[in-house]
What does this fold into?
Amino acid sequence: MKHPAHPARTAAVLAALALGLLTGCSGGDGDAAPVPVAPSSVALPAPKQPAAPAAALATPAAAGEVRVEAGPFTDRVRLTGLTLSKGSAVGGHLTITSDVSDVLALEVRAAFYDAGGQLVGTGTFRYQEEEASTGEHDGPRAAGEGIDFSAVAEKLTGTPVSAVLSIPVLVNE
Amino acid sequence: MQRKAFKAAVVVALASTLVGGASVAAWSEPSGQNQNEQGERGGEIRNVIYLLGDGMGRTHVTAGRERFYGADGRLNMERMPFVGQVATHAVEKGSAKPALVTDSASSATAWSSGVKTYNAALGVDSYEKKVVTLMEQAKAAGFATGNVSTAEITDATPAAEFSHVLLRGCQGPSYSDAACLPKNADGSYEAKPADSTLITPVAEQIARNGTADVVLGGGLARFEPDDQKALEAQGYQVLGSFGDPALPTQSAASQKVATKADLDAARGRKVVGLFNRGNLTVEAAKSALPAGAPEKAEPTLSDMTTKAIDLLAKKNRRGFFLQIEGAQIDKRSHANDAAQTLGEIKAFDDAVAKAVDFAKRDGHTLVIVTADHECAGFNIIEKGTFTNAEAAAPPANNDAGNPANNSSPARSAAANVKDPSRSGGIVNGAGSKDPKNFAPATFRTPDDPAGVADGSPDASLWLTYLSGNHTGADVPIFAYGPGGQRFAASQDNTELYGKMYRALFNRSPQH
Ligand SMILES: [Zn+2]
It folds into this structure.
């Protein structure tokens, strides 16, 4: 690409570097540390995962109730018309209120609870407006008119009567 | 090498004697040949301040000048002595094939690491190989470093200097396939990379890699209490609060944004200040809010620039490298909001003035002002005219075979009129309620008579947008200070890396 990769020049630079290190000269700055050629390699913990849904509701929910759990992005959206339909999906309308740029990734997670308040399954709605490959998006957008969404339960271990929504992922371009 | 360094030292000493103190500006005009030569030897350039207006094309600069200083005025960036232009194209993923319109991630990786990469890539090349960044190199070599933005600090432009991810959407607080993993052609996700850094959210990386000493911007919602703990363990002063460690997830209620007052009081050598949970508030919107609104406590880009320079220049022998982004020029251009776009250009240009003022006092600071790409095809049209988007019919290209170009006009006079269904009046005036309106926005300038209002047909600055997307236009670059003449050229965005590298380290890049 645009790197000065001419062999003679590279050799000259390396020679100058070596000389600089040997003689303690580094362009007038006596304490200059060498410039690394490798990226930062600080040991990082594993990529963080979203907090798991509570195994049981702290307070009982009414049949059909859909709660919204405050999280990192709940203050950036407006959720309306939330319903628990057929006992296995949470639907509604979501409008992003903070940014108008393309949504790179949005995830709405529904945690489903049975009559006893025990977790019986989860479902996730995923959405994005810009495919990295094409940069194109058809249909309604999450900012402005907003989008309809539905988070369908994946593996139910009981009969859901209520649900808790959270938004673990929201990124705008 | 030693002899040359000795000579440079003598010249610097002489200059100090002549001007009576090293703190007096030694550099003012491009004709200062001795200064420039010293700059190339490295003793002269101690600090590099790189400012960019995201999405700021040449017309954004012109429109900002005319709006705020009049046709004969100059923005602060336009007062800088060296002017050039930068080509910005990206490449297709997994290849060197040009993709002519870049996004902010690819573009920022180009100047941060000197490589072309695919759109959405940060700190990796087109083949997903992690590449060292200039800020990492500056930090490792003993420079103080700073990263400032009006966007979320995890957003593409700042992130490219101090993180490495396969997709710019991988910002945090938590990992998700959709945000962090690229897709194959068949729509399935790529396998997770062997180096998990590349899918570790940017916030998690920033909080632990110590690449920037001073981190100022938005995006508090991307961070969690364990990030604050990790920062504090490295000696950072963290302004505000990243939340309550007892809670499983953080929210607006549990986190506390930093404020301008916190920033003013900050004294640490390493400081993190996040002033909004998302992007910082657009200046025009902030000024319209009532007194006491929490957004009013956010610093301006100028405030953050002044403080970052102050913190980085203090007790620092080696010098510093500071990147500053005016992010909302792009975001408001995507929205085709000319009033806020103009306001953000002004806010950015005010920050440029702070950097140049410091460079003038310091005499050893290179200031570069540019953009990552143009956004939205911003145009200044003649007062009283209209664009093709408003016309009854587009011009037909029916004259291609005629060398004399003297046949019948390409568009009939009858078609070259406004179509009322797409031209409902000036969009920031009479046509503001028409959702299908392609008419221009109009703004008064200092050259207009008193009483001429924005949004009226009498205002002289008529602005239009081509689209809501980036364009492939070259962007302007301005430079001030020793070595600044190297930027007075037509250049590719990857070349900015090598030029800044030489300014900081006095030698050519090694990789
Ligand atoms: Zn953009």
